[in-house]
Amino acid sequence: MANIRARNGKLLFDFTYQGVRCREQTTLLDNRLNRSRLMGMLNTIEAEIRLNRFVFRNYFPSSPRCSHFVDSDVLIENNLVEAPCVRIVVASINLQINRAR
User: Fold this and answer.
1) Of 32, 64, 70, 97, whose CB is crowded by the most CB atoms within 10 A?
2) 2 close to 14: Cβ distance less than 8 angstroms
3) How many C-beta neighbours within 10 Å does residue 29 have?
4) Taking the mean position of all CA atoms in its chain, how far away is CA 11?
């Protein structure tokens, strides 16, 4: 389970991606507002992981782990580029079905 933790008074993300435990330090101080902001980001990260849309380097570009996930990042980015075309076709089909009614 993903979580926001504190180390030395600073907040960090703690989550698992592709079977690898990732602990990414931030420069934010440990307080309620910053925890709330990071929880929002963490919820988005978890959703993107579940939908196979998470690109590690988009969230943590200066992390040493970026090199570990570079292949999957490229693969996911290539799939995301193709995805809008599918959405346009589906929207077009739905529009045609609604007009036919």
Assistant:
1) 70
2) yes
3) 12
4) 18
Sign of the Cα pseudo-torsion (42, 61, 79, 86, in order): positive
E strand residue ranges, the chain: 3-7, 10-17, 20-29
Buried b (16+ CB within 10 A) or exposed e, 51-68: eeebbbbebbeebeeeee
Tens of pLDDT along 6-30? 999 999 999 999 999 999 999 999 9
The DSSP line for 7-30 is: ETTEEEEEEEETTEEEEEEEEEES
